[in-house]
Amino acid sequence: MGSKWALFVLTHLLLCSVPSLADSSSSISKGLSEITSIFLDYAKKNEVFDWMVGVRRKIHENPELGYEEFETSKLVRTELDKMGIPFKHPIAVTGVVGFIGSGQPPFVALRADMDALSMQEMVEWEHKSKIPGKMHACGHDAHVTMLLGAAKILQDHKELLEGTVLLVFQPAEEGGGGAKKMLESGLLENVEAIFGIHVSPDHSIGEVASRPGPLLAGSGFFEAVISGKGGHAAIPQHSIDPILAASNVIVSLQHLVSREADPLDSQVVTVGKFNGGGAFNVIPDSVTIGGTFRAFSMESLMRLRQRIEEVITRQAAVQRCTATVDFLEKEKPFFPSTTNDKGLHEFFRKVAGEVLGVPNVKEMQPFMGSEDFSFYQEVIPGYFFFLGMKDETTGKLPALHSPFFRVNEKLLPYGAALHASLATTYLLQLQPTTTIKGGEHYDEL
Q: How confident is the model at residue 402 (pLDDT cuts 50, 70, 90)?
């Protein structure tokens, strides 16, 4: 009760006490420091930490692919119910959106993705995936857990919230474009800002890394079937060899980046799939190849799309084959680049500096991974950042999407406290005058 009363007083001072510009700035800074410190201490309590570890391990043991996260969604709803947090479900098949606060503007959103990857876990430990061929190899189990941890912090300190926090538990980030479907629900229509976390095996515990502007590349996928004429390997003149044609296609695709793209405009074309033939002495009728392409601008991404199709069909024709190309846009929509709002960058640096210490807030270079958080950023000011989990006990951690990937659970309190601090501070300090479209509000609250 004492800490809650102290927080209430701090909130009152932040909102009401403005003796002078210098004094006000100092008072606000001190107040924010107190709030973030209390949130981090709360998240580090043994009972809260142990609860988060238990939640994360349950999710890890039962990984589910995009739009199939039924048990994960049920777990999220159960935990929100226990906290007394209202929510809406189903959204985008399995998605959940919880609400904490007044139900009135301003609205700020915190997002976690729920889906796993189609791969076999190779880490031998007590809570290894129980589902053959499925694994949480990108940390989404930790993302869901940290957002539930933030929900617990915010619900227990909801008297601080001068507005409404939306807790966005999203399906199908891994290529399925779940963020796009969450937006189509209309629930995020009046959100003023949205924040997202991703675990990082390359940064230390207690560190965050991000940057203003472009952070992650836009991406698309392609699959091509190259058809020839099968026959005996000993008499290739009677066949039309699709393996030879596919090999020439793959080499030619690499020239799109090395000889057609501006060297200062980062782009990637990678073929990661090649299926054809099943015998040593038989030329197959067809070969299937597939891959991904990446760029930071939509213009460059669309140019790559055009040239990929041209190269595949025309190179196949050179070898007397035919080819069809599918860009899989219904199942795997093109992702725009993840581009952080520059105003939110300064806000994030300030809040993260209070939670973790200024030296632990790092600026990183853009890289060619992609994230469907970018769909939110197309319509809402958004900020995406990486949270470190490396320490002296872990050594070098395996990369994301590795079958040996593992999460250092010591990062969970930091993610929960950061989420809660960003939302609370945004509502306290950055309250814009908001007109809700159609006069809507969230009646649950």
A: very high
pTM: 0.89
Task: Tell me: pLDDT of 12 over 80.
Answer: no
CA distance 410 to 45: 12
Q: Are 293 and 332 in contact (CB under 8 A)?
A: no
Cβ neighbors of 98 (< 8 A, separation 6 or more) are 80, 85, 86, 87, 151, 166, 167, 169
Q: With contact defined as beta carbons under 8 Å apart, do 192 and 106 qualify?
A: yes
Main-chain dihedrals φ then ψ at residue 175, nearest 5 degrees = 95, -15
CA distance 239 to 230: 6
User: 30 is written with which tokens?
Assistant: 């001190």
- In the chain, what is the straight-line distance between the N-terminal and C-terminal CA atoms, in Å? 23
pLDDT at 395: 82
Q: Are 339 and 205 in contact (CB under 8 A)?
A: no
User: Could you tell me the CA-to-CA distances from 49 to 10, 43, 46, 199 in Å, in that order?
Assistant: 26, 6, 5, 17
Coil, strand or helix: which one is 384?
strand
Contact 405, 399 (CB under 8 A): yes
Q: In whole angstroms, what is the distance from residue 260 CA to residue 254 CA?
A: 10
Q: What is the DSSP string of 423-437?
A: HHHHHHH-------G
Could you give the CA distance from residue 440 to residue 435 in angstroms, rounded to a whole number?
A: 9
Per the rule left: phi > 0, alpha: psi between -120 and 50, beta: everything else, 369 is beta
Q: Which of 14, 6, 112, 105 is nearest to 69 (CA)?
A: 112
Greater pLDDT, 98 or 433: 98
Q: Cα separation of 352 and 329, whole Å?
A: 37
Distance, CA of 107 to CA of 188 (rounded, Å)? 9
SS3 state of residue 315: helix
φ/ψ of residue 208, rounded to 5:
-125, 155
Amino acid residing at 278: G
Which residues contact residue 38 at a Cβ distance below 8 angstroms, ignoring those fewer than 6 apart?
3, 6, 7, 157
The CA-based angle 411-416-422, given to 5 degrees, is: 125
Contact residues for 207 (Cβ-Cβ < 8 A; gap 6+) = 356, 360, 361, 362, 387, 388
- pLDDT of residue 20 exceeding 70, the answer is no
Number of helices and strands (H, E) in the chain?
Answer: 11, 16
Conformation bin of residue 45: beta by default, left when phi > 0, alpha when psi is -120 to 50: beta
**Measured distance CA(365)–CA(348) in Å, rounded:** 17
State pLDDT tens for residues 258-313.
Answer: 999 999 999 999 999 999 999 999 999 999 999 999 999 999 999 999 999 999 99
